[in-house]
């Protein structure tokens, strides 16, 4: 890997030999998640991220029915292959669908393809081949089993053994899984020698439930954790959330909103912001390799990179800990877990 920008430290992905910046590029946004992003804006966003040192890029066939992979590949092909780390996923094959083509659910793209679950060994190989075609690249670095929540047995029998074989063959350098729930991820971490898992929405400033199972299991097994959803789908993404704030893509419950606002007030009292707290806090855990954040514009890239370097005084973390706003087991920048808290299950 070429060196990252000085203000973007890198961390290892398990035992793969790969290192990634602590801030990753989440590819769902340029796959037109919720709303369309013009082609030129999507390309400019990817270029801005790479230029800023955000050279860890995560995508999936699921994102925009392949649009994310196609758009990312168009830009990545113009860069030296060793200058970025690319992750995609398996578990859904994309099959052509005859017209008429309506909108594809939460992705603002025509439904010219449909998703077919496939966690077999052959399906994993086919998925990677088709992803490489869309990307226009010869290889990806990281391959993850995607959303196997209701397909654990199939993934256990087919996908994971095949990913391990592909790693042995040198087709990919790192393998793992990406899901929202920690329980199945924890089982996979314990059963297979995975390099990395990606979990969304279970380790942020408002929910540290991954401390119960996934994070200690990953630490024990030498598996790195990548985090998605660190801004809680909205409530932690602004300086002070309003009444219309969302958490996990739904209206934020009153207790969540109250806690987020208290965190925001503490941040403001010390001259910083809630989003800076949200990003820097989760990166303090030793098994966390990176936070992957979805972006839709060059301005969002610049804002997120700026959050990494924002000055958050130690008094902020002391106040967060003193007011019981996070689980006492949670490492915070400049503050270890509370004595005896790290081993509590």
From TrEMBL:
Entry protein name: Pyridoxal 4-dehydrogenase
Pfam entry (one): Aldo_ket_red
Database matches in Gene3D superfamilies: NADP-dependent oxidoreductase domain
Top enzyme class: oxidoreductase
UniProt KW keywords: Oxidoreductase
Gene Ontology CC terms: cytosol
Domain NADP-dependent oxidoreductase per the UniProt entry, residue ranges: 23-321
EC numbers for this chain: 1.1.1.107
Phylogenetic classification of the source organism: Bacteria, Bacillati, Actinomycetota, Actinomycetes, Kineosporiales
GO MF term set: pyridoxal 4-dehydrogenase activity
